[in-house]
């Protein structure tokens, strides 16, 4: 088990190096940061000096190596636009994105599984069919459109919830949280739904189809034949057996929730890392972009590792140390 | 003695777009306490469907469309779902064909046993564990105490079927429906499982409906045998009598096609043709197109009722 984790960690490092390399080489094509940083009145000497200061005159492998050197020490350089360390900027912004991702992930998983089970058990029912039809909308509508529709209904027409920002936040240590104020919680609702709706419908449809599959299995018939209650059959026996594929997809989708928060954060002007990234792209702020991409890939790699470990927790057949008869 | 189970004119129907199918058509039989009734027939003869109807596990849209099922004199075919659930496992146990798929792969077998025991006997968890252990020992799982926390995949097929039998019997039901319990097993294990089932049911006085298409298993285990053809009972009677002097031509064909009865001939005997599909059951006696003795009456008169154990106008062993 430990050997497996170490092997996976090693693989993860390679993945991160490759992501870093790809990301870094892409930045050579997004534009010249110097154009943005110097005003109209620049001279050739100014440009050369700035290039030397930023290290942009050095060959690509050297730049990449320097970036990696800093990255392992938690130093991602200084933002070209804000002139402050990238690590500090991201640390300021991360709580907003993580809280948003947490709430929408929670929303997607809990409602997705609950509705998935419901529509599978009552697959002939009217309510289940209505939910299934509505879920098509969730799967097919683009995120920004959902956000705009929600803002129109709940902010503009009904005026119940704010249309942008995080509301009031409270600092808990270095973490700015919106969970402790009413306006903070109200501000979370619309963006969380917007961000999690696609994942929610995806999880729900997946749980449903897996449940329908498992409910036909012999061991479910046998569980019924033993007179176990419907609840035990549906949850203890059926739902558990759907979890392995569901966890795979859910894990990837949780990564996607954080990575694709960019769109939702733009629509709701949410002060998180996604919005930071968009602004960085406009300004060719290479250190910020590089740090963001590395962060996202660390996140995906970690989630994947956790998902693999969860398989072991759920499915005893995968445990290699098991005894055999 | 009052029968444990009485099936009276049971009809199971499946409505389809092309009309109503009848996989079980007016089947009646009684089962005495401790008796083993073998039910034989080809695939699709309605053997399993009858068993599923008795335990109330027909898959929709199949449903009981007529007749009665009485358990110890009480009707159970019209019970509400929650009452029927309490009968399943407690009064009627069931053993399925494939032990590899009948156990939940994610739960230790001890948990599957104790949840069943707790559900029906209302005992504490630790008591249920003790009973689960006793049940495993009774079905002959070696080192049962160490195997309570083992998962199904850690057992061989034969051992798993023993676990399945322990599960079916752990709440002491008065009737067990064993649906092809040996079909998926190695030949070498089949006899052990049948012997185990026989011994347990004799010890506990449990009646068994043994559904199979294997005449050898019937001869080995059953007290009485019911032969089904196209959803109907063709013949029913004591095993010895039915196997040695079959009265229905279909039973005669089945018995004749057992390899042991071919007496070293190069080719095994077989019944010509195949069983009709449910959508095209012939008029008159359902067996008439394949029957060597068929006469006009078999083709035109309504199907014969069971008389003296056989549903045939011209039973064998009687002057025509």
Automatic annotation (TrEMBL), chain A:
Domain ABC transmembrane type-1: 94-311
Keyword hit for Transmembrane helix: yes
Pfam families: BPD_transp_1, BPD_transp_1_N
GO terms under biological process: transmembrane transport
Superkingdom of the source species: Bacteria
Gene3D superfamilies associated with the record: MetI-like
Transmembrane segments: 12-30, 100-121, 133-155, 175-198, 243-270, 290-314
N-terminal signal peptide: none
Topology of the protein relative to the lipid bilayer: Multi-pass membrane protein
Subcellular localization(s) per the UniProt record: Cell membrane
GO cellular component: plasma membrane
Keywords assigned: Cell membrane, Membrane, Transmembrane, Transmembrane helix, Transport
PANTHER family to which the protein is assigned, alphabetical: ABC TRANSPORTER PERMEASE PROTEIN, DIPEPTIDE TRANSPORT SYSTEM PERMEASE PROTEIN DPPB-RELATED
Family: Belongs to the binding-protein-dependent transport system permease family.
UniProt protein name: Peptide/nickel transport system permease protein
Automatic annotation (TrEMBL), chain B:
A GO-annotated cellular component: plasma membrane
Topology within the bilayer: Peripheral membrane protein
Database matches in InterPro entries: AAA+_ATPase, ABC_Ni/Peptide_Import, ABC_transporter-like_ATP-bd, ABC_transporter-like_CS, Oligopep_ABC_C, P-loop_NTPase
Cross-referenced Gene3D superfamilies: P-loop containing nucleotide triphosphate hydrolases
Pfam families: ABC_tran, oligo_HPY
UniProt cross-references to SMART domains, sorted A to Z: AAA
Superkingdom per UniProt: Bacteria
Compartment(s) of residence: Cell inner membrane
GO biological process: peptide transport; transmembrane transport
TM stretches of this protein: none
Molecular-function GO terms, alphabetical: ATP binding; ATP hydrolysis activity
SUPFAM superfamilies given in the database record: P-loop containing nucleoside triphosphate hydrolases (SSF52540)
Primary location group: membrane
Keywords associated with the record: ATP-binding, Cell membrane, Membrane, Nucleotide-binding, Transport
PANTHER family named among the record's database cross-references: DIPEPTIDE TRANSPORT ATP-BINDING PROTEIN DPPD (PTHR43297:SF2), OLIGOPEPTIDE TRANSPORT ATP-BINDING PROTEIN APPD (PTHR43297)
Protein name: Peptide/nickel transport system ATP-binding protein
Species the sequence originates in: Cribrihabitans marinus
